[in-house]
Amino acid sequence: MPGQLATRKRPQIPVTTWVIVFAFCLLWIALGSLVGPSARKHDFLNLYTGASLALDGNFRHMHSPEVQLARERQFVPQLDALVPFVRLPFYALLLAPMALIPYAEAFWVWIGFQSGVLIACWIWAYRRWGPDALVFGALYLPAALGIAHGQDCVFMLVVVIVTYALSEDGDNFPSGIALGVGLIKFHLFLAWPLALLLAKRWRMTFAATAMIAAEMLLSILLAGAGGVQEYFALLRKKDIEHLNPSPELMINVHSVAINFGLDNIAIKGALVLLVVAMAGIACWRAPWWRSVAAVSTASLLIPPHVYGYDACLLLLGIWLAIFISTDKWTRIFATLVCCPLPYLMTLAGSPWAATTPIALLVFLACLAFRKSPTPTDAL
Predict the structure, then answer these.
(1) Residues near 313 by Cβ (< 8 Å), separated by ≥ 6?
(2) Pair 283, 290: CB distance under 8 Å
(3) Is 9 left (phi over 0), alpha (psi -120 to 50) or beta?
């Protein structure tokens, strides 16, 4: 069946589809033009700083707040507070060539590259599911939002797509290698071990573990044990203004608790356990597509630090639910999660900002409890 999907004649793209896609692209470009000036001094700044320190070979102290702030002020002299680079040294090494480009120009190169990668993801989906996949791809705000902010969230979507595509074709070992690359933003893949365990994908688990071990070893070789310790110390710091500035605007269950005045560890713990339970139910004896969609959703809801643009990686789960699921409500809530409205509700402030995580919770519940096995579900 996967081979048939990949080789069947692709439908022509209707004019209306082109119009819708270009209309949303223009809308997101207009929105991005408003976000861009602050993105250059925030999200992109920390990635460029990591690349710059890596290019200099300063891996050992690249996660020192003082070292990062001093380097960031070389690019943005009026910067008032540290915008921390919170990726492991192996990823900084991959980013290093970007620092060969002057800071101002590098931002636009980065935006263009991210946009090109996203379009490649759209093309992959079009080849599998036809023109409608392009519409849902263009409609999806988190991807556009991440690019506008100068983030690298599109790479996480690529990790999930490559992992799914390879495993769908039975290539579990390279699929696991691809999944291991998710260590770049490991907190967005926390629920994946659950899917691997319940699906008994041992080769994939071994490959992912081996890849993670290789990335950690490379990071230690680059920065030394002390440098890696500085990295984890940076993650634990509570006094960095830009590390976790607005927890009520996150798209996780912690945000739900905060927005409804239930900000205590017991409530948050119960909500996390609920998410894990629903993800486990969704993955239990389930077709692989549903496991991928469920753990992608759960991985956004569990960690304490997840912004709207981090949901970019969920685009694959949305495509899978819309085009493979035979359950009406699963498709409806997948479409709802794909629409911009839940993510725009953060602009209304608390408690409306809880709309996005609640929508994700309902989508996860549909994946867990509204199962309708059919031949199509085997994909």
Answers:
(1) 153, 156, 157, 159, 160, 188, 296, 300
(2) yes
(3) beta
Ordered DSSP codes for 313-335: GGHHHHHHHHHH---HHHHHHHH
DSSP string across 276-311: HHHHHHHHTT--HHHHHHHHHHHHHHSSS---GGGG
Read off the tokens for 88. Answer: 């492991």
- Please, is 347 exposed, middle or buried when counting C-beta atoms within 10 Å of its C-beta (0-12, 13-18, 19+)? exposed
Residue 160 contacts residue 311 (beta carbons within 8 Å): no
DSSP 34-50: HHHHHHTTTHHHHHHHH
Helix intervals (H) in 130-264 = 131-139, 141-148, 153-168, 172-180, 192-198, 202-236, 253-259
pLDDT tens digits, 183-195: 999 999 999 999 9
- Peptide bond before 245: cis, by omega within 30 degrees of 0? no
**What CA–CA distances, in Å, run from 215 to 33, 64, 161, 212, 237?**
35, 20, 20, 5, 23
∠ CA 309-168-198 to the nearest 5 degrees?
A: 80
- Cα separation values, 240 from 63, 97, 134, 237, 279, Å: 13, 28, 39, 7, 32
Tell me how far apart the alpha carbons of residues 19 and 25 are, in angstroms, rounded to a whole number.
Answer: 10
Cβ-proximal residues to 155 (8 Å cutoff; 6+ apart), any chain: 117, 184
The tens digit of pLDDT for each residue in 199-255 reads 999 999 999 999 999 999 999 999 999 999 999 998 888 766 556 668 888 999 999
Interaxial angle between packed helices 315-324 and 153-168, expressed in degrees from 0 to 180 and rounded to the nearest 10? 40
- The tens digit of pLDDT for each residue in 142-179 reads 999 999 999 999 999 999 999 999 999 888 999 999 99
Q: What SS3 state is found at 378?
A: helix
Q: Is the pLDDT of residue 312 over 70?
A: yes
If you count them, how many residues does the chain have? 379
